[in-house]
Amino acid sequence: MPAPNAPGLGPDVAAVVLEHARRGLMLQSWLRLVLLAFVVLTFLAVPPERNLLPCALVVAGYAVWVGGATVWVRAGTRSAVRTAWLAQFVDLAVLAVLTLLTGVASPQSWTSDVLEVGFPLVPVLAATQLRPRICAAVVVPTVLVYLAAGIATRVANEEPWASLLLRTLLLAGVGLGCVGLSRIQRSRVRTIGALVRDRTDLLAELTDIEGRERRSLSEHLHDGALQYVLAARQDLDDARETGDEEAFARVERALAESSQLLRSTVAELHPAVLDRAGLPAALRDLARAAGARGGFAVDVDVRNWPDDERSPADALLYRTARELLTNVVKHAGAGSVTVELAHVGDRARLTVTDDGAGIPDGAIERGLRDGHIGLASHALRVEAAGGTLTLRPGRTAGTVAAVDVPSPPG
Question: What is the 3-state secondary structure (H, E, C) of 88-146?
């Protein structure tokens, strides 16, 4: 897991990482208190026959150190998050020293045998770091020290080699499990961080969406219907002065075109047209308007979709088609576009094919990283509905965008 202040992390993501790291440190501090209590109770329940004073001094020093480390860790500072893992080597050293003092000098005492039970707690402490490499860096020395302490006390305790090796193998298994757990927890935190980053990007984009929609509407009205209305007004003035029938015909054509453009704009703004005319008619109007803006020919194939059919997926298909056609207008430079809508079993399939410049691999992901969420947001909506949105190169040129979603009867 990257450090909370690593370059490239946004403030929201860094806050999530830091919060989870602090939670790990809190758990570590509690586990260290458990280890301290275990050591103290061990010397109270089964005190060694020799070296009691040196052992007591080590335990007392460890208790003071644990108190200071607990206060430092619970402060949750960035330096504590980065370096708290070093404290586990102190835990390991204390267990090793006490095991040797009680096991070598007091072979008849059970103290060292009980203390060896505390070694598996050290890898568990390391697992709270959510950093697998650091966890492994603690686990490996723990296993080696545990084996070395066992070898040093084996003769005095008359322990068979098989018993020592099996105990060491068990500790290694616990350590390996802790490394795996640390890796899983880090993956979860990264996933949460990615979700936070995506949410932040989406919120930032949504704050600007109203202005973009207004600008888009203004451009559609200014470059389309308004131009025809102005031309009709000029032709009407000419017709009044000259009485030319051709001038009246031009007025009629201009008003018809402006009416058509206004209907298309209204249809794009509000999907209520789906309820009135159905998805096939709405797609025809949408494709016709996109072709007029982009200067390309459009063919709409809705033969496998009844005009009077309604389904819960209609609005999603319509909005996705609008986004795909808008991208063709803005980026493809296409000469022709084909829009196909069909039922395949209980699913709806929408395909938009153009012969333009094509779209590179990973365009959606790069666009999302750059803050352009238009197509990415539609892909997420399609996935949330149980469908897929895929982009692939055309057979000779251009792009094929395919949308496949469940479409139960409405």
Answer: HHHHHHHHHHHHHHHHHCCCCCCHHHHHHCCCCHHHHHHHCCCCHHHHHHHHHHHHHHH
